[in-house]
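Researcher: Can you fold this with adenosine-5'-diphosphate in place?
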Amino acid sequence: MESTQHALPNAKTVEAELLHLLARQSRRVPIPVFLAAAMIAGLAAARVPTINWAAWLVLVGVVLATRWAVLGMLTDRSRFSEQQGLRIAIVLNAVNGVTHGLSLAFFPYLTDFERAVQSFLLIGLCAGSIATTAGSRPAFFAYLIPTLGPLAILWAVVPSDSGAGWISISTAIIIVLFSAVLIALSADANRLFRESFEIRLQHVELNRQLKAALEMAESASRAKTRFLASASHDLRQPVHTLSLFAAALEMRPLDARTREISQHIGTALQVLAAQLDSLLDVSKLDAGIVQVNPGTIEVEHLLERIAKEIGPDARAKGLDVTFDCPAGLKVETDAVLFERVIRNLTGNALKYTDSGEIRIDAVKQDESIILIISDTGRGIPDSEQARIFEEFYQVDNPERDRTKGLGLGLSIVRRLVHLLGIRMEMVSLEGKGTQFFLILPQSDGTHVTAPPVQQATFLSALLHILVIDDEASVQEGMRILLTSLGSRVSTADSTDTAAAAAAADRPDLILADLRLRGEDNGLIAIRAVRALYPDTPAILISGDTAPDRLREAEEAGIPLLHKPLHADVLKQAIAKAMTSDQDRAVA
Ligand code: ADP
């Protein structure tokens, strides 16, 4: 208890709590207590001079009012410590008790019946004070002793008016016994009060710990996102340059051996680019900028296509691939993102299965469609099953051999199913195999998926392209690549030089790096060129995967490509930018 209080400097102590309770009760009880006192005064009115009972009643009123005012003041202001406040409250309780006990001065003048009524009222007030003092021993005794103590004595010593002495003695004994019961009850009440206070303190402490743990987890997650973003940015830049040079190299006349080497470089770069793309996917999903375009998917077609795609690799490993789907099944989801989920899962099934088969089944259950991707591979030990959805977590790759993947596939799947609202379950038995279940609502087929956008034909030949990038090697790579595609290229490394280059020679298209030197950036540069030639088509290229940056580019409405850039992706983006510009002109 002590240590909990020290750990909680702002929490109230049990004394402060008791003081508050006493103050609260002192505001509630004055009226019923005063009515009880008025009744005792009423009994005495016929037996003692008016001045006596009236003065007593006034005294009771004054004490109740003083107690009410002082206790309120003690809790409102912090001039006194809690202990001092509590001491004052106990003294006030004692004064209250003594005042009520003073009514016993009327006792000898009352009839037996009136004495019984007076006793009943005093015992009632005493029992009530257990609740109003939370059984606090000093506060309760301060009231009990000056009231029931003299009452028992008076019953024992003052002769009964009816002459039945045994009634008086018995009543005295009963009052003593009853007082003992009240004392025991008050101890229980006090224990409960302290326990409930302690539990509340523990709750406060638990809440505080929980909040701290949550904040820590959130900050760790933010740090992880920042790390992912900056690591992938730093890696993207050189890989991007390398890709540009590799693509340019492949377009040159090469002897057979050099072409083979160049193709190896291209393949290795593609693997690297795919891994960087996974990092980017995680960043994009975390930034919340991945858009969901729901549509209706024909499950059978999708499964057939995927089974066909993985067929050759599976056969090369000696595995069977089968799929089973009732004809006409349709689901409502985003086709591209959903396919990504299935590809990641089937890709893993292929990677982690050495013999047996990979199955992709779809079954209809009530209003849902369940897609089951099963393999007869190595399975995942129970102890690892929760962790495999974490980023970079791999069960059996302590040497972190990157040809075995990055450990991002399932963390992307987890984010995607969450985004798409798909329920996913996994059952895996070590050494036997793994099954992933994807549970989706069945589609009534009313939404029709838009046909895939036709890639515009390549139009970059004869274009004048302004490349804005603050890295000379990237400028050079772009120049070589784009000129080998037949374009004319100007380069600039900042907004100022871009505006100057554009003023000297109007570009048909701007290719700008998002992050330039200092405060400068590709968006500012594009705006500067468009100030001279409005509506010039533009493409942003970025190695940045920081969620904020991605959002900024998205909001500007300019297509954004990510480094490292594959030559085909660049070609298509240029063609698309030029076509949509023509569309704009027609519109
Ligand atoms: P990666 O496949 O790149 O290692 P994932 O995030 O896709 O990363 O998977 C994480 C880990 O989960 C893998 O390293 C593998 O150990 C385990 N795993 C995933 N799918 C399967 C599967 N079908 N069978 C056995 N193990 C699997």
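Model: Folded with adenosine-5'-diphosphate in place. Residues 348-349, 351-352, 375, 377-380, 388, 393-397, 404-411, 434 surround adenosine-5'-diphosphate (CB under 6 Å).
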